[in-house]
Fold this sequence. Notes:
Elements: H1 2-16, E1 26-34, H2 43-54, E2 57-59, E3 62-64, E4 75-84, E5 89-96
Parallel strand pairs: 1-4
Antiparallel strand pairs: 1-5, 2-3
Amino acid sequence: MHQSFARLRRQATAAMAGRAWVFGPVALKITLFGPSSNDGPSLVDYLGGVMDTLDGSSGPTFTYLPIIFEDDCQVVRSEVRLEDYPTRKYIIEVVIL
């Protein structure tokens, strides 16, 4: 899902419009649209993926700087829901508390 990861990082970077990432608490609201089924990742998996995309992360061969917040532990409130819809898309709202 690297294309989704890269697209979300680009859109988050544009939304931040040159502002530095947040050091305080944030809330996340994620609405997933798509066919309802029990196949695929859970809603918690999506939440974890979004948090890992918007904060800083690194591995043996890569480092990504934070975009919205510095670390997952800053997310103090979250809501993730699935809406039945014929095609897949998502809306992510970040509230700086």
